[in-house]
Amino acid sequence: MVSALIVTDSAAEQLVVLVKEHDILEPQGLRLFARTGGGCACSGPAFGMTIDSPTDEDEVLTVAGVRFVIDKLSAENLEGASIDYVDDVMRKGFTIEAPNAKAAEGASCGCGGGAH
Fold first, then answer.
1. Which helix (H) or strand (E) holds 74?
2. Using the 8-state DSSP alphabet, how is residue 16 labeled?
3. What is the model's pTM?
4. Are 81 and 47 in contact (CB under 8 A)?
5. How far is CA 42 from the centre of its chain?
6. Given strand 29-35, what is the order of strands in its sheet?
7. pLDDT tens digits along 9-53
8. Measured between alpha carbons, how far is 40 from 36 in angstroms, rounded to an integer?
9. Bridge partner residues of 77 (DSSP)
10. How many other β-carbons are positioned within 10 Å of the β-carbon of residue 98?
11. Dihedral over Cα of 39, 59, 54, 8: its sign
12. Which of these, 111, 45, 106, 107, lies nearest to 79 by C-alpha position?
């Protein structure tokens, strides 16, 4: 269960626009999910968002006026996560930072950066 999900003001503004543009109505929401298997396993999962309807096993929560749908496996890694919206010279879009996300158990680091 995700009891703490932080949405910055800039992310909230952009998410509300996104919800309106895509005409996202209940029961649909923005599904937050964790992907594993790509990139460096020692750094933990990567996160993403998509439009989806919840299943009986999903957690649904509303933060900053936006409805989020989260599956149980992703919820473990999203506890205490923050969603921000960045618009600068280098990148533009949503970022999800999850300080409590866990690296894949038993994964050895193949990043070339030594032990983490």
1. helix 72-78
2. H
3. 0.79
4. yes
5. 18
6. 46-52, 29-35, 66-70, 59-63
7. 999 999 999 999 999 999 999 999 988 765 555 566 889 999 999
8. 9
9. none
10. 22
11. negative
12. 45
